[in-house]
């Protein structure tokens, strides 16, 4: 039964992710066509991040108190709504509204069925890692396919490509309603699970109490948040770095596909080794080296190679952190604490965007990304070292 549910989840995830990624490779020309300039496009992204921050924790509590399947399907419906606003609307404020809805969708989806399946697989680390890697590979495969399809669909349909995405969202909602599990209550039935859920405030307090009692959870949440200082500069600046290095914009699609293939390799490598704390230090050391080389390199080819290598250690590190967090969270508050982590990460994301914007006022995109990687690596290693001497308290 569980295997069938996981396959159904992968199928729905594949359909909705194809629709989600389809317009992303041509997002900038679409928004320019809607009347936005480059600075306004960045502000739209800030609106998305703020919405994610505001909605992440409430949706996590809602998923714990009601149904993770309901919240997951709701997230797809919100994405569908945001894409329709983009297609039918125009202007800066309307696009901000679309990205606020999209941010709410991202917040709703972040701690739903993935945590439901993680709770059922947590007793066997290899099974949990296989699930996480398979989920990522499904997302990556559909992202690559969608990016390739968008290159010719946009030429044929223009911004009507958003309507094609809407069809895929509607299909994924229909399939999800039929195939996804109806009962997403925790599998275990210890004393905590038997309690009837209290009011909203008690759920928040319960989740925070569980999180603060276990140093593993605190460390994983902090480390995941700090990764924003590596992830955001990479995803927001790589095109600028390539343009400064005189790469033609027509090659960006190939770089996007290459990034996804590197991500597949990262998931394969991650699924094949047993986690040890020293692995994190090795990965952070590699990211530190990439940051130093990226900051000092003068050759465009060297920078391009660094950009292509960067996702490999970064995604392995992210996979390790997600597995650590999911393995440590008590079943009853999985989505609540997962959303707490998402909220903290969203705050860090805003700070990282602010830092990148500040550095960009007097540094090149290349140096900004390199400096962010160096800062991220040093702070993360220091946190791991600090917490490694503290015994974890496992919540009852």
Question: Your description of this structure?
Answer:
It is a single chain. The protein starts with a helix and ends in an 8-residue tail after the last helix. It folds into two domains: 2-179, MFS general substrate transporter like domains (Growth Hormone, Chain: A, Up-down Bundle), CATH 1.20.1250; 204-388, Growth Hormone, Chain: A, CATH 1.20.1250.20. It is an all-alpha fold. Residues 189-197 and 392-396 have low confidence and may be disordered. Helix 3 packs antiparallel against helix 17, helix 12 (228-244) packs antiparallel against helix 18 and helix 17 runs antiparallel to helix 18. It has 18 helices and no strands. The protein has helices spanning 2-21, 27-33, 38-65, 68-88, 92-109, 113-121, 125-157, 161-179, 191-194, 200-213, 215-226, 228-244, 252-272, 277-296, 300-309, 311-328, 334-360, 365-388. It holds the Pfam family MFS_1. GO terms for molecular function: transmembrane transporter activity. Residues 1-388 form the Major facilitator superfamily (MFS) profile domain.
């Amino acid at each position: 039964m569980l295997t069938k549910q996981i396959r159904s989840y992968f199928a729905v995830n594949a359909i909705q992710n194809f629709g989600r990624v389809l317009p992303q490779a041509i997002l900038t020309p679409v928004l320019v066509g809607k009347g936005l300039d480059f600075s306004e496009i960045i502000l739209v992204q800030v609106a998305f991040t703020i919405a994610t921050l505001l909605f992440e924790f409430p949706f996590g509590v809602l998923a714990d108190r009601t149904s993770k399947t309901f919240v997951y399907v709701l997230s797809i419906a919100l994405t569908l709504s945001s894409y329709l606003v983009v297609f039918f609307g125009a202007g800066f404020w309307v696009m901000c509204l679309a990205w606020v809805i999209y941010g709410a969708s991202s917040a709703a989806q972040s701690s739903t069925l993935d945590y439901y399946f993680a709770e059922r697989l947590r007793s066997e680390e290899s099974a949990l890692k296989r699930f996480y890697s398979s989920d990522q590979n499904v997302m990556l495969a559909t992202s690559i396919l969608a990016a390739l399809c968008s290159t010719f669909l946009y030429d044929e349909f223009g911004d009507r490509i958003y309507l094609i995405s809407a069809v895929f969202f509607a299909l994924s909602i229909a399939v999800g309603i039929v195939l996804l599990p109806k009962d997403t209550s925790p599998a275990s039935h210890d004393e905590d699970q038997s309690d009837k859920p209290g009011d909203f405030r008690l759920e928040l307090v319960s989740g925070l109490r569980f999180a603060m009692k276990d140093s593993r959870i605190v460390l994983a949440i902090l480390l995941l948040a700090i990764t924003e200082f590596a992830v955001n500069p990479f995803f927001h600046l790589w095109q600028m770095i390539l343009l400064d290095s005189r790469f033609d914009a027509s090659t960006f699609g190939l770089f996007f596909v290459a990034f996804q293939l590197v991500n597949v390799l990262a998931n394969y490598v991650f699924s094949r080794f047993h986690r040890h704390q020293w692995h994190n230090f090795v990965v952070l050391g590699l990211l530190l080296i990439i940051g130093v080389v990226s900051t000092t390199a003068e050759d465009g080819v060297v920078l391009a190679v660094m950009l292509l290598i960067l996702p490999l250690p970064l995604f392995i590190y992210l996979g390790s952190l997600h597995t650590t967090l999911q393995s440590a969270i008590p079943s009853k508050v999985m989505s609540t604490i997962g959303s707490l982590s998402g909220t903290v990460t969203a705050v860090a994301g805003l700070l990282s965007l602010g830092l990148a914007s500040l550095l960009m006022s007097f540094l090149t995109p290349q140096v900004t990304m390199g400096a962010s990687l160096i800062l991220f690596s040093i702070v993360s290693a220091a946190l791991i070292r600090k917490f490694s001497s503290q015994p974890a308290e496992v919540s009852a």
